Amino acid sequence: QVRLVESGGGLVKSGGSLRLSCAASGLTFSDYYMSWIRQAPGKGLECVSYISSSGSTTYYADSVKGRFTISRDNAKNSLYLHMNSLRVEDTAVYYCARLKSPPAFDNWGQGTLVTVSS
Amino acid sequence: QSALTQPASVSGSPGQSITISCTGTSSDVGGYNYVSWYQQHPDKAPKLIIYDVSNRPSGVSNRFSGSKSGNTASLTISGLQAEDEADYYCSSYTSTSTPYVFGTGTKVTVL
């Protein structure tokens, strides 16, 4: 079955950087769009970024545009999220999720917590 | 692009049916049959339970069903069970600069 495992979260000060990783197994990774979805404590879900199967197309929510960069390594079955200029409001659990077509987020990792302190 | 509107909470007794609404606009829910629903238990990752308005992924109980009318989608849980107590989120593809939007979330309580 599909397994997505995130890592790289932690505590960082405002203005700092982190790189999240998502290791995928049980799927032909290079066939699928992949996404990062975050959930602030006690709040709802927000798709912050996604990337096409080849990596040629990316999307960023306005809230992270210019600060976050999504990338993937299909040879390593891995998805990444480089987060720069982190803000307190970026504090959230970040989930890696497969974006199938027709569109739905059909497989999710367990999430990794990013905490940004002031 | 604003979040889709869901009721904050819905409750029901075991065995009853409940319905959660998800209201958007003609740019999202009303414009596409790409509404999905997610179940999230406390401290767990969301799980897809309905996609394309009314389709269930393999392994999801047939007690969950989805529908849509105009700009409002609905999730119905029939034969409510204690394990259904969770948060539920809808999502839709949109024609705006935000391709995917989620709902505000609904907490389901089994009385």
For the secondary structure, the number of strands of chain A is 11
Can you summarize the main beta sheet of chain B? Answer: 6 strands, mixed
Summarize model confidence as the mean pLDDT of chain B: 97
Into which percent range does the helicity of residues of chain A fall? Answer: under 10%
Radius of gyration of chain A: 13 Å
| Strand residue percentage of chain B | 35-45%
Instruction: Tell me the span between the first and last alpha carbons of chain A.
Output: 40 Å
Overall geometric form of chain A: globular
Structural class of chain B comes to mainly beta
Number of DSSP E strands of chain B: 9
Helix vs. strand class of chain A:
mainly beta
Please name the two chains that share the biggest interface, counting residues whose Cβ lies under 8 Å from a Cβ on the partner chain.
A-B, 20 and 23 residues
Q: Number of helix segments of chain B?
A: 0
Polypeptide structure, described:
The complex is a heterodimer of chains A (118) and B (111). Chain A has 118 residues and is an all-beta fold. Chain A is 0% helix and 56% strand. Chain A has strands at residues 3-7, 10-13, 18-25, 33-39, 45-51, 58-60, 68-73, 78-83, 92-100, 104-108, 112-117. In chain A, the strands form 2 sheets. In chain A, strands 2, 4, 5, 6, 9, 10 and 11 form a 7-stranded mixed β-sheet that branches. Chain A has a 4-stranded antiparallel β-sheet with strand order 1-3-8-7, with no helix packed on it. In chain A, a hairpin with a 3-residue loop joins strand 9 and strand 10 (104-108). Chain A starts with a strand and ends with a strand. Chain B is mainly β. Chain B has strands at 9-12, 18-23, 35-40, 47-50, 64-69, 72-77, 86-93, 100-102, 106-110. In chain B, the strands form 2 sheets. In chain B, strands 1, 3, 4, 7, 8 and 9 form a 6-stranded mixed β-sheet that branches. Chain B has a 3-stranded antiparallel β-sheet with strand order 2-6-5, with no helix packed on it. In chain B, strand 5 (64-69) and strand 6 form a beta hairpin. Chain A binds chain B through residues 44-47, 50, 59, 61-62, 95, 100, 102-111, and chain B through 3, 34, 36, 38, 45-48, 51-52, 57, 89, 91, 93, 97-105.
